[in-house]
Amino acid sequence: MSSKRYKKLPEKTRDLQSEAVEKLIPILKQNCTTKFDESLDLSLQINNKQKKNEINIRTVINLPGGSSKNVKVGVVCEENKSQEAKDAGAEIVGGDEIIEEIKSGNINFEKLICTPGMMIKLSKLGKVLGPKGLMPNPKLGSVTNDIKKAVTDAKSGQVEIRNDKDGNIGLSIGNKSFADEKLIMNFNAVIDALDKEKTNNTIKGDLIKQAFLTSTMGVSYKIKLGKSI
Predict the structure, then answer these.
(1) Distance from CA of residue 14 to its chain's centroid?
(2) H helices of 130-218, where?
(3) Across-strand partners of 59?
(4) Domain ranges across the chain
């Protein structure tokens, strides 16, 4: 049963004509009528079914307008790298003892970073970390000796863009409290990253089938994309 607050929100917004994100953000903010700082969430459906293969996108970007999330970071590293990780702000730092905790199912971090030297041991936990999207990956900058940069990036607005088996991508571009300009910057950064992925994967036709923007407790609106991606 819908709440009185929800019943006051616009109906059938998906039937409306698509609008540019610049026009939709102020509308979304007006619909944020809860007491907490709602996030503005982007939902994309991509054309991942190609003739020769299925497209799987997995990349990371740094949101130029910042992120509303306080990501809890874990670092698996050698002892001589531990202080660097702690100084950078990592909450969980260690070596073999962290690996043993992961083995036992004790996973209390949202992002995991690992040095190349420890990756040999950590790679054996693919069945545990893989399904949760937590396995470090050198292409995503999470397997590195530059622990300070990796932790700083994870803490300062870095987000992962990854589609599921049905071609859906979902992520937050910020909160209601963010200035419109910052939200637009973050949205454009996501679109630019997907544009690069389209080029890298030599995708035929449009990569993005449709895009929607919604708030945490609101309704969704269809986005009119400014260019063919």
Answers:
(1) 24
(2) 147-155, 180-200
(3) 161
(4) 13-67+158-222, 73-155
Record: fold of 73-155 = Rossmann fold (3.40.50)
Of the listed ranges 25-29, 130-134, 185-189, 195-199, the least confidently predicted one is: 195-199
Residues in the chain: 229
Q: How far apart are CA 144 and CA 13, in angstroms?
A: 45
Supply the Cα-derived Rg of the chain in whole angstroms: 20
- Do the beta carbons of residue 39 and residue 216 sit within 8 Å? yes
**In this structure, is the dihedral angle defined by the CA atoms of residues 112, 81, 62 and 68, taken in order, positive or negative?**
positive
Q: Where are the alpha helices (DSSP H) in the chain?
A: 4-7, 21-31, 79-88, 96-103, 116-122, 126-129, 147-155, 180-200
Q: For the domain 13-67+158-222, what is the CATH code? A: 3.30.190.20
Residue 114 pairs in a beta bridge with 76, 143
Q: Which tens digits make up the pLDDT trace of 1-55?
A: 456 655 565 666 666 788 899 999 999 999 888 889 999 999 999 987 766 677 8
Helix (H) or strand (E) holding 60: strand 58-62
Instruction: Provide the β-strand partners of residue 168.
Output: 45
Angle ∠(136,161,88) on CA atoms, nearest 5:
50
